[in-house]
Amino acid sequence: MRSIRLFETVGVISAFLSGASWASDDLFLFGAVRDQPYGYYVAWSALPSKVAWAPEKGPFPVALDREAKRAEHYLARENGITNELDLIAIDIHRLVTPRHLLEKRGLQAAQFTNQWQIRYIFDVRGPTSGFRQVVMLLDGTIATERPFSITSPNAIATPDQGRTKGLSGTEPPTVARSAAGFPTGLHKDLDANQDYLESESFLVPAVQWDPRRSRFPLELSEACSIAKRWLLTEREVSSEVVPQEIHIFRYQAPSSLRASAEQLDLERHHWVVVVRHGLARHSGYHYSTHILLDGRVMQVTAVDMDAPPHRHE
């Protein structure tokens, strides 16, 4: 079974504690590790984005299928990638900006309340496979990717706790492929559900999403509402929690395990939406609600944001 190194879902480096930027005219969004540390930057002149999103007030303003195609074309044009690119995940995060950097530029924190970044993560198929991603703001501004030194005197890079409990540090895990060719190990919580997803009792949703052919079928504001209602009724969570992150992952349905080569393409487009709610101050417990494309809640997991980070073994 061929293994590849996933560089996005863990191994993320944050500069938010130091509030620094590697270039005075750019905001450092986040960093990760591939063959070397590298980061994503957006020019301050592009901030705040002209497009904002309050999940409780309106639909998600981005057509994910259209922007994923634009991201794919960007990778081919800017990075010279000629291999097939297969969209396997989308991460949507609130844009967290240190207050003192805003004040330095005469900006107000209120202007950034509903600012988000989107990461389109692709599997590069072929003999030189791996994972590549494109990061955008809601208005379509594409972040610049460039290497940086995590020992830079201009900032203190620290492991990001805003992930799954136990996943931190800068070393990416090894990610394997299933017999059907699907990447595995994309998300610890998703892996924990794999036995259920592959069981005979699991009712595979009739709804699928082929990013090349159709719009995303589950409105993300509705997904946030489903998650919030579930948390309030089933977990009795504080009503003050708000959506902080949304992760959209492809998974392998049981039917794909039994599919013939001819039928496999019809079973490749199952996705789960993980909505993470937490307090605005990024402390206390954050709750990840796993939702299938037909709106069913699969499970809820909790992460203590105040717990010290540690490396996942």
Helix/strand layout:
Blueprint lengths: L2 E3 L7 E2 L11 E8 L3 E7 L20 H16 L5 E10 L4 H6 L11 E9 L5 E8 L6 E4 L10 E2 L14 E3 L11 H5 L1 H4 L22 H16 L6 E10 L2 H4 L3 H4 L5 E9 L6 E8 L4 E8 L9
Antiparallel strand pairs: 1-10, 2-9, 3-4, 4-8, 5-6, 5-11, 6-7, 11-12, 12-13, 13-14
Largest pleated sheet: 7 strands, antiparallel
Whole-number average pLDDT? 76
Residues in helices, as a percent range: 10-25%
Strand content: 25-35%
Helix and strand composition category: alpha+beta
The neighbouring-strand order within the major sheet is 7-6-5-11-12-13-14
Report the oligomer: single chain
Instruction: Please report the distance between the alpha carbons of the first and last residues.
Output: 20 Å
Task: Give the helices and strands as they follow along the chain.
Answer: EEEEHEHEEEEEHHHEHHEEE
Low-confidence stretches: 1-23, 153-176, 309-313
Total DSSP helices: 7
Query: Which radius of gyration do the C-alpha atoms yield?
Result: 19 Å
DSSP summary, beta strand count: 14
| Apparent shape | globular
Q: How many structural domains can be distinguished in the coordinates? A: 1
